[in-house]
Amino acid sequence: MTRAASRHLIAWWLGRALPPAALAGALGDLDEEFITRARTVGRLRAEWWVLREAHSVARAYNRVRRLEHSVSHARLRFAPLRDLGTGLVESLRHLRRAPGYTVLAAGSLGLAVAAIISTAGVTDTILRQSIARSQADRVHRLTSVTTSGATMAFSFPELETVRAALSDSGRIGAVALTPALVRVDDVSAQDLVDVSVGAIHEVLGVRALHGRLLTPEDDQPGRPRVIVVSEAFWRARLFESTDAIGRRVVLNGLDYTVIGVAPTLPSLGFFGVSAAGWIPAATADSLLKRGWRTDPGNRAFVALVKTDPPDSRPVLDGRLATATGDLARAFPEHWRDRRLQVTDGLLVTGNLRRTSTNIASMLSVMAAMLLVVAATNVGGLVFAQASTRRRATAIKAALGARPGTLIMATLAEGALLGALAGVVALALYGWFAQIAQSIPVLPTIALRLDLPWTWGAIGLTAVLSVAAGIATTLIPALSISRRASTRSLDALSTRHSGDLTTSRARRWLLGAQVAATVVLVVCATLFTRSLDAIGDASVGIDIDRIAAFDFDIEPAGVAPDALPALARAALERVRALPVVAGAAMASLAPIDQATPGGDVRAVINSSEVVFRDVTRLTVTPEYFATVGLRRLDGRLFSAIDTLRPVAVVNETLARSLQGAPRFTDLDSGTAYEVIGIVSNAKYRTLNEPAQPHFYTAASPGFHMALLVRAAGDPAGLFDDVQQALDQTGPGIQGFFPRTGRDHLRPVLLPTLVSAGVARALGMIAGGLATLGLFGLLSWIVQSRRQEWGLRVAIGASPADLRRLVIRYAWQAAWPGSLVGLAAATAVAWLLRGQVFGLTVLDPVLLTIVPVMVIGVVLVASWLPARRATRVSATELLR
Amino acid sequence: MSSSAGHSAQPTLGEFEIVVLLAVLHLSSGDADPADVAYGSTIVREITARTGRDVSRGAVYVTLDRLEVKHLLTSRAGDAPPERGGRPRRVYRVTAAGLRATRHSLSVLARMQAGLEPVIGRL
After folding, report:
1. Which of B24, B37, B79, B84 is best to mutate for the A interface (most A CBs within 10 A)?
2. Contact of A259 with A279, CB cutoff 8 Å
């Protein structure tokens, strides 16, 4: 290779590796070195040396370049994070400059997220909460179930038999919730107390907050009367006193000593209420119905079993069959078709659980739809804001901002809005959790729901809010970046957007918003009308004229054989009141889910026929006139019938009996003679089918329901009745006074809750849809000012402009309305089991929806239409 | 001896950077042969002579560039004798910042080795 060729080669080689500033010096050095070395080692070796040195130089510079490239490439890899960070800073600046937009967007999203979180919280509390505070997997409900599937509580003798049979496979605790007149110092109030059998707190895994809990030794005859109070009682009645232990509390006139304070627990028998305290069964004679220790039909106890040791569930299951056999031998009439069963230790079970599950599903869907409405509303707002920053976006795109940068900027704004919405949602959830601590059910009973307030709930709220914010801004982000990258320079040169892409996207969002709003409004209307239908539906009795009281507490210090006369005197005194048109007593107030049922057998056409789940009530002779049941045939009860096995049946049972003069109650073994027929009524729920039912006669007594027929407003006679009872004897009170309508509230509670929530969600959604439409119309009016000016210049009147704006509004709203109506019809069909007395294609609904949409259109377009009429022709000159 | 050396704002130089700076200082100091100037080939020779080992020319050039970027060296176009094909020498000189950085780095080394004479012997 000649020197020249070598020099050229080296120059080319190093020219590819070295920066220009270093190249000349390096090449000169190599030339100089070649000449110096060639004199000493010869040209060939000098040439070889120069090539080797050139290689060394090129390699060193190439290595540096590769290192720099990998660093810069690493920087590029993290560009999305850098863009996100930059976007967050810019978004924060923008949100601070647009407070109205920020409040509206964050508020809308926060409201919707709060609805979802609240629904989830209520569902979690109602459906997933277990009874036990600890070791929940070992605690189970113990019930008896009939062949027809009805579950029952236990009487005390049944409970003792079960405890003996299951003693080696688990620990059993049971409670009977009972009303009591509780006096602390000089203040008396009606309250609820749990009569405890066995180690109920131990089964529930509860520890004493102060003092100690009940032990089996406390439940022995002759022991001092003691009570463990709940934390709520300790706060409200003992004022969180540090010397509460040892204080005296009077229950129904008898002294009890406070030995401990336990956490407030939900009742096992009546969902949502809590007992004021727990007393041992050995000291509960003044609270429970007389004969509770020996009467197997007096089923007041709800039982729990805790498997002990933990893996003894199979042993327990084996023992259940044995215990059932023992019960059948001990109480043959009551256990002919019953067996023991163990179910999950959940707070809500049975029909209430099924109803609650359906309602929870429904409310969850509605809350999700509200989120759709809010998200589309915010999406529209983001579009509007993006329009005001159109020029800035276009300049950024023209200067080389990548689409990803623009997308990240918008998503960052969505994330920030979502974070703000999370704060709003948490505040609203906290407020709702406070309300849920005391939801009035009856005038003297409030439902208590302890909604979860944990780090998990807070974290879920935060994640859901931020995700909703990002999802909300995704479509606007993609749309904005696409427009910016393709039409950035056009946007700089035009004075108005005429932006069809934005307009289309916003219309789509608005359509989704209107559709979701229509569905929510339809659901709200369905539930509200369902409530009205329930209110108008006949329940078979004069529910609006009745007041009910629980006549539960036997006065202390009265001889047992004097109690019936005392009860009769109380009833007579009440009946004598001027405001009272009639009074009676019954084993239960009418329309109560706890109305007992059982099987009856009759001989019809020479064949024995068994009728399942026939409900029954024991009533005093004046019952039928008091509640307004019509006599259809035969006669009603007289005083002497309380001593004879006679029954009055309803129409449904009479039809089934086909004239048979007698039937046998298989539960008690008693054969009854049918003496009369009365009209049908409702006995357990309002939407039950025709239910066979019979009445038996009884004398007035304690532990019955006192029913009073009012001469006027039933709520107006509470005080008079209580006074009359008090005058009969000290400590005689009517517990939980309520009107007939109030009495239905627990039955109606699921529908009431659904209607209330649906109405609220529907109103919110309607408001958001109106705002969304208003925003779109305002943007259209603002962005087309030149068009309005042109129309005015060529002779359009203000009325013409108003009509044009309203036409825009209608064009934006009607597609969503159609979709919403179709979806609402499908939803109405799905809800058919939850609504009462309505058909799916309800003509009222089909009328309400278009009226609502027209209303939204008119309200939302009013102000933008006014603005459009104020545009002058001089807009053309701008 | 300052105990606050750890808080100095002087850049930390690598070993080879110190070697290159010292070579340039040798070549551009008053007692150097006036005919020598500090450019690529003479710096390589100076380092080879003083360290007793061959050094990669490419590593020297890259280090010279890096030190110039750090403003510890400056360069100028020197003369262009015919044996270089008309290409001027790229003559380097240590800047005041480079001198301070060299002084700082050497003082750090001196402080580190203080008291270790019984172990490593006198240098």
Report:
1. B84
2. no
According to DSSP, the residues that pair with B77 across neighbouring strands are B90
Contacts of B69 in chain A (CB under 8 A): none
Measured in whole angstroms, the distance separating CA A828 from the mean position of its chain's CA atoms is 20
pLDDT at B4 over 50: no
Q: How close B1 comes to chain A (CA, Å)?
A: 38
> Cβ(A472)–Cβ(A349) under 8 Å?
no
Identify the pLDDT of residue A447.
67
- Contact A28/B87, CB-based, under 8 Å? yes
Do A61 and B83 count as a contact with CB atoms less than 8 A apart?
no
Contact of A25 with chain B, judged by CB distance below 8 Å, is answered with: yes
Nearest CB to A24 within list B57, B81, B87:
B87
Peptide bond into A296 cis (omega under 30): no
Residue A63's nearest CA partner among B25, B62, B81, B43 is B62
Between A290 and A542, name the one with better pLDDT. Answer: A542
- Check pLDDT > 60 for residue A7: yes
Per-residue pLDDT band for A492 (boundaries 50, 70, 90) equals: very low
- From chain A, pick out residues whose CB is under 8 angstroms from the CB of B84: 28-29, 31-32
What pLDDT sits at residue B50? Answer: 93
| A67 touching B (Cβ < 8 Å) | no
**d(C-alpha A782, C-alpha A798), whole Å:** 16
Q: Which of A108-122, A334-348, A533-547, B102-116 has the highest mean pLDDT?
A: B102-116
Q: Which residues of B11-25 are buried (b: 16+ CB within 10 A; e: fewer)?
A: eebeebbebbbbbbb
CB contact under 8 A, B85 and A59: no
SS3 per-residue string spanning B10-69: CCCCCHHHHHHHHHHHHHHCCCCCCCCCCCHHHHHHHHHHHHCCCCCHHHHHHHHHHHHH
CA–CA dist A686, A834 (Å, integer): 12
Whether A315 contacts A262, CB under 8 Å: no
Q: Flag whether residue A68 sits within 8 Å of chain B, measured between CB atoms.
A: no
Residue A719 has pLDDT above 80, yes or no: yes
Kindly report the pTM of this predicted structure.
Answer: 0.61
Q: CB under 8 Å to A109, separation ≥6 — which residues?
A: A371, A374, A375, A378, A417, A418, A421, A424, A425, A465, A468, A469, A472
**What ipTM does this complex have?**
0.83
State residue B71's pLDDT score. 94
Say how far apart CA A126 and CA B11 lie, in whole Å: 67
Chain-chain contact of A56 with B56 (C-beta, under 8 angstroms): yes
Q: Which residues of B touch A61 (CB under 8 A)?
A: 58, 61-62
Sequence-ordered alpha helix ranges (H) in A554-675: 563-575, 623-627, 651-657
Contact A253, A163 (CB under 8 A): no
Beta bridge partners of residue A580, listed in sequence order: A710
Give A218's contacts (C-beta < 8 A, 6+ positions apart): A226, A259, A280, A282
Considering CB atoms only, which of A7, A33, A60 is closest to B62? A60
CA distance A399 to chain B (A): 30
**Separation CA A502–CA A393 (nearest Å):** 14
Query: What's the pLDDT tens digit per position in A349-408?
Result: 776 677 777 777 777 877 888 888 888 878 777 776 776 666 666 666 666 666 677 777
β pairing state of A277-280 and A226-230: antiparallel
Contact A28 B56 (CB under 8 A): no
Distance from C-alpha of A574 to C-alpha of A626, rounded to nearest angstrom = 13
Q: A347 in contact with B at a CB cutoff of 8 Å? A: no
Distance between CA atoms of A546 and A708, rounded to whole angstroms?
6
Distance between A73 CA and the closest CA of chain B, angstroms: 21
Q: What is the DSSP letter of A836?
A: S
